[in-house]
Amino acid sequence: MYEKLEQLISEGDYKEALYEFQEEYQNIGLSSDEDAARLCVLEASIWEALGDGIAEFEAIAKGMSFDQTNYELFYMLGLYYQNFNIDKAYLCHEMALFYCDVDSDREVIASTLQELKKDTRVRVRGVSVMVLSYNDLELLKMCIDSVERSLPKESLEIVVVDNASTEEGVREFLRERADSADYSFKLIENSENMGFPVGCNQGADCCNEDNDIFFLNNDAVLTTNALFWLRMGLYENRNVGACSSLSNSASLQEVAPSLLGEYAGQELDNLWHKKLGATKSFEIFSKYAAVNTIPMYYPYIKRFRLTGFALLVSRDALKVVAPDNKVFDEIFSPGYFEDDDLGMRLATASFEQYLCTNSFIYHNGGSGFEGHNDAMERSRQTFIDKWDFDIWGFCLHWQEACDKIADLYAERKEPLKILDFSCNFGATGSYLKHIFPDVFVAGVCDNSFAAGIAKNIVDDVVYGNLNTSKLPWNDHSFDVVLFEREKVCMVRASQFVKTSGIIIDDREEERD
């Protein structure tokens, strides 16, 4: 199949090759996923030869939507990244070799990897996957199996801390897997349940000190390439400290059930996965992930905290915020809010945290901590006592304001400049920057702590008295000004909005 197209490419007749590709592409819907991906490989080859990087990238992404394990696509993606992010190039070639089953091609990819390893600019580390285990044997098996399918064994370490599981077969399974693994598999068996923070810290202390650490719940199952795209996020730049995935069940990181109904063949509502069971639910979620786990120009949503069910943290960041391997503050035992606390520590150390929208991990979700029904409220108060604010008041974006900005964006069809007097930690700015990457968001905070967090998320931020401090922007220079009436007066907001702009306040009043 595609012999004529391959011949035209080999002869360097790219104009005719494009015509031939277009003919073949008309029937791509009749092809198998494998053949469709192969056609996209050939398309990417044409654009690479013609020097059109954007078209090449889009062809690779299209191909991965058909076949997520096509090694040629990973190899080409590695070539695409080689000149402007050598770490990402390395990760792509590593996965190309992982998936490749053609001996002659394996030699070429391995040679490319060896050359990259010699390059002193490459800083990619291996990954220690730290799994905290407590019962849920079948989910634990799915979890471990999915990790083993995710990375070459040379780059992988699994560290399991079993928190005194009582379910029959759990410890026997873990011991057998530790004994039979042909890669680094470490098992720690606690005689009592130490809770989440202590157990994770035990595991972190046993992880290879040269590796990044991926904290993964034992009831979380990786879809294909989920960990790869998390690693791509972690090596987006040197300031990234942590990455996490979208899920069916994770605070502020959920894929809406309405988006999954097509793959389930029925409408889904909240907690749908609990009703259908883990096996069926993972199958549905994997189908959705398969068409969305693809290269994107910038798939990251900047956050100041990420949910700890699946959290990849860079070793460089850990050396700063947890030099003693106490990654999670044990005052939050038995659990809850320890991930929020880590997020704040990363943010105050100026590390960026990314929610990767092309990485998907199924999470079955637990029912809390046995014998500690008040754990969430206690840990919430512990967080307030430690940080002097309630994080629940700062995590959500201002949806009504964002909807109005979306309307204005659609009307203007051009980038907007937005000034947010309700910036806080940048939640609204984070949402806007993800939905409209070309908007400019400036924030004003009433204290330096909030400004220090928000500066990792919005384009520009200052702090001071919201009504009287001198601000560094010209009067009447913003298309949109957001503010809360209780904190900012209308005269102040009007000072910075263009005559053609809009003001949005928390009374949902919009004025031209």
Automatic annotation (TrEMBL):
Pathway assigned in UniProt: Cell wall biogenesis; cell wall polysaccharide biosynthesis
Pfam families to which the protein is assigned, alphabetical: Glycos_transf_2
Glycosyltransferase 2-like domain span: 128-238
Glycosyltransferase keyword on record: yes
A molecular function (GO) term: glycosyltransferase activity
Key word Signal present: no
Protein name: Glycosyltransferase, GT2 family
Keywords (A to Z) from UniProt: Glycosyltransferase, Transferase
Source domain of life: Bacteria
Organism: Butyrivibrio hungatei DSM 14810
UniProt record similarity statement: Belongs to the glycosyltransferase 2 family.
Membrane-spanning ranges: none
